[in-house]
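Quick board copy: two proteins, each given as sequence then tokens.
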Amino acid sequence: MNRLFGSVRSRATLGATLVVVVALVVTGAAVLQALRSNLTAEAGIQAEDTARAVASELAARTPYDQLSGLGSKSGPVQVVDEDGNLVAASEDLQRISGTVTDQVEPRPSSPSPSPSASASPSPSAPAREDDDEDEDEEDEDEEDEDEDEGTETPRSPSTPEDEESEPSLAPGETGRQTTFSSGAATMDDDTADYYFAAVDVQTHERGLLTVSAGAPLAAEHSAVRTALTVMLIGFPLLAALVAGMTWVVTGRALRPVAGIREEMAAITASEDLTRRVPEPGTHDEIARLARTTNETLAALETSVERQRRFVADASHELRSPIASLRTQLEVAAAHPELLDLDGAVEDTVRLQHLAADLLLLARLDAGERPVDARVDLAALAREEAAGRTGVTVDAESAEVAGSRGQLARVLGNLLDNGRRHARETVSVSVRREGDWAVLAVADDGDGVAEADRERIFERFVRLDAARSRDDGGAGLGLAIARDVAVRHGGTLTAGAAPSGGALFELRLPLA
């Protein structure tokens, strides 16, 4: 399991699939909610139309038994008086919930206004026995209605907010507000969910009535179930398709990475730095990674080759003074009178200088940072020029940050190189140029050919005119000077002096 999800390909596929699944779930929930809201709103419009149609008939003094909305083909309809009594209801209504009252048997609170309604009981009203108790109850109801006639009774199904927001209605007027609710009803043994709309109407003789009409939610439930079924089937298929496509696409995109990894493993095993990783023909990040890897391999190859040459050249340079010194000591051991003491001392000093140069180069290659101290190049130039014949100094004060010993070594190497090739004089100057301090060492010799002005900074390089070790040294002075300049954040370049000789300019940032 860890290996499966440890690859970029697996993680990319899993991440893309999770994002798609979350997006599908959120979108599906929003679609279902919008669909349910729209269908419920349509049911509410249908229910409100039915309720207002019945309310208009009641406002027009239509008898309860002649209301068109109470037919068996219509949805459930209830007419409730201001006392909460059911006075009219749809035919075949057996059970109801979610409205003002759950009563299904009408009990009209007042007689029908029409003559026909007064002469005969309403078909919707239940038949009663002519017993004394029922007549007494009806008489009491009629007396209560006579006493309450002309007074406004608060509508029982209305909320306090409805009573405050809607003013009293005039006789024959229908309320503008509609109250919606969800519930269920059973008609002709068929139970279904309905969305009810309740509307108030002020009648002339029967007072304030509330008409509740319901519209079926079967279409809404069916549409939601259908959409949910489609989502439950389609969303997993879509997620699987996204996962498969992501797996294939990431596999094709990462295929060059596998080739790069295999080639790097082969290079590591063979230690052959001349090999290069394959570069894809695309212009994406993987192609740039391959090019950067090859550039790194090229730089590493150059560094290793440079190190090999350095070791070989160092061994060669050390071999000569050591062999000469050994020869002199062997001769001195056999014939003390033939000991060349000056030559032995000269070879020892030369060997000491070479060892010091090699040690400094090793420290520079290891990335040793110079000491952060302030050094005045003008004062340093005067110190290094003192005691050297034919050296002139023209310097203004310019402080830089770095190692005084290493900078003195640079200036000393430049002065030694200038005296070695000058005919008569070597001039040293220090000046400021913006944020830089420039130290220039010029001689009046033959100068350096333009083609060799970069080559002379390579290690153990001596030009043909200075191949003699007695005159040219080991060829490390200028290489050390440039490395020290780079470590101090500056540059060292070679050029032509106005007098025709060589000109070396050391540029360092001012402290």
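And the next:
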Amino acid sequence: MTAYGNSAGRRAAVLRARARGGLWRRLLTRLGLASTNVRAAREAAAWEAGADGEYSTAAQLATLKPYGWTVLNDRAIPGAHSANADHVVISPGGRVYLVDSKMWSAKTGPVHGAGGRLWHGPYDRGGSLRSLAFERALVEKALQAPVTALIAVHRAPVQDDGFFVDGVPVVPADRLVMLLVANDGPRSPGAVWLAREAERLLPPYR
């Protein structure tokens, strides 16, 4: 997988090209007079950070594959026009996990829950929870199976090394694999079939 080859990376590349486009635009940007270019560059940086988070999570989840886990990265979701699933994981026990990767800056502050809300430093990240709930419901509908949604956080410290908010586990990315393994049940004969259905019904996102 090449750098920024996933959907977040492709979006970042488009925005970077837009910000750089043309000699006149580059000159205005250097002079600080091209606000549109500056906004595009900032948005591209955010998408690049998201792509980095997804790659890091994918690399960690890949360590599960030799043990019978199925890992599907950057998947389209039936019924969602623009949303995609960062990672869909099917365990040997037949459990389905939807993992949302977040590359959030440590400088902004810790990720924590308060008042039933998700916070990153002083910023309310409720939008991330709502998006994840929407995606989870559609994946459950497609697979006709329960789906557990999780948020895996890179860089920013996470309260208590993991916590729940609105029923969603929020965990440091480096603890994700350990937690998935610890929460799996006995091997299920239906896990292979479920993994095949997930591959069929959740194609790579384009």
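Board note added afterward: The chain has two domains: 1-50, 63-201.
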